[in-house]
Write a structure and sequence with these properties.
There is one protein chain. By secondary structure, this protein is α+β, with helices and mostly antiparallel strands. Helix content is 28%, strand content 31%. The strands form five sheets. It has a four-stranded antiparallel beta sheet. The chain has a four-stranded antiparallel beta sheet with strand order 3-10-5-7. Strand 12 and strand 13 form a beta hairpin. Helix 1 packs across helix 10. The longest helix is centred in the last third of the chain and has 28 residues. The protein is flat.
């Protein structure tokens, strides 16, 4: 029977738009499964159908429909401040029993912007009033107060932005855009617009072994050479012992370059001598970085991915039991 593992998670940094954590006491298969589920199987909402009533802008209907589909749609329960898992409130439209669509499987949006009408409320001189008007995600009006476009990832992005939200199209005098859009629940495996993450990666935890006996044969100048040749600066000289030691944040900056290996070979008295410093990948410890598109909070993406994984394993266990009974 294989050795049973009990994976552990240590949170390094957590913000609504980003989370960084260490997954340990497991193997690559589990780490990669979690990464792939976050990318392709965590359900979110995205605009899936657009009905145009009027479009006199410079972009044709297909371009605008595609841009609307890529706007992150955020579900936030009325009693919560976090962008959460929409699966608790919606059904996949293929599983809903309604004829076409209903509030249980879809959310309707309306957009109606006219340059001439908007100019009446704009301030400035004549040149500023005739400047192109940006239609953004702020102009999308939802019929569900718990669902709205994710205009910005965080406050810093909002402060630096020149537009009121995600830009859809620019329009000039005499132009108008009027449409209705329908958002449905889906997963990234079906289309990338349902992917809740912009980044979902992991790195192997670096394991640094320092051969104290070999390092003791080096002069201080040679030790400094060994430190300087490493481009990611993961080593330093201990002020007390005079030996070499890893820097405090070595795990975050290690890039596994071969410069250190080549220089060590040149410093050895004999080719068969052990290395002064070896850097290897850990096989059971991983550093995850997850950045959200804004559709969900980063920690909710991780929790949702774990729920999907648990459901899949439960389904597999049940199927195996059914086979035993046959």
């Amino acid at each position: 029977m294989p050795h049973q593992r009990f994976p552990k998670v240590q949170i390094l940094h957590m913000a609504p738009h980003e989370i960084k954590f260490i997954l340990s006491e497991t193997d690559t298969s589990v780490a990669n499964t979690l990464r792939r589920i976050m990318i392709a199987e965590v359900p979110t909402l995205a605009i899936d159908l657009v009905e145009f009533h009027e479009n006199s802008t410079v972009l044709n209907d297909e371009y605008i429909a595609h841009r609307l589909g890529l706007i992150p749609i955020r579900y936030q329960a009325l009693d919560s401040m976090k962008g959460g898992d929409c699966k608790v409130a919606f059904l996949p439209h293929r599983e809903c029993v309604c004829y076409e669509r209903c509030p249980r499987c879809s959310v309707d949006f309306e957009l109606d912007v006219s340059f001439d009408e908007a100019t009446q409320y704009r301030q400035g001189d004549e040149d500023e009033l005739l400047a192109p008007l940006t239609v953004s995600s702020q102009d999308l009006k939802s019929n569900n107060e718990a669902v709205a476009p994710a205009h910005f990832l965080n406050q810093d992005e909002q402060d630096d932005a020149q537009d009121a939200g995600v830009a859809i199209v620019k329009m000039g005098p005499g132009q108008r855009l009027k449409l209705k859009a329908v958002a449905r629940m889906g997963i990234g495996k079906e289309h990338a617009k349902w992917t809740p993450v912009a980044v979902a990666t992991y790195r192997f935890w670096p394991v640094i072994n320092i051969n104290e006996e070999q390092v003791a044969t080096l002069t201080m100048e040679q030790k400094q050479e060994l430190i300087d040749v490493c481009p990611d600066r993961i080593l330093e000289i201990d002020d007390v012992t005079g030996s070499i030691k890893p820097v405090e944040n070595y795990w975050d900056i290690a890039t596994y370059t071969e410069d250190l290996k080549f220089h060590q070979d040149a410093l050895k008295k004999r080719k068969e001598d052990d290395d002064f410093v070896t850097i290897q990948h850990s096989t059971d410890k991983f550093i995850f970085t997850v950045e959200t598109t804004g559709a969900m909070d980063a920690d909710e993406i991780v929790m949702s991915a774990l729920r999907v994984l648990k459901d899949r394993l439960t389904y597999l266990a049940n199927e195996v039991e059914n086979l035993k009974d046959m």
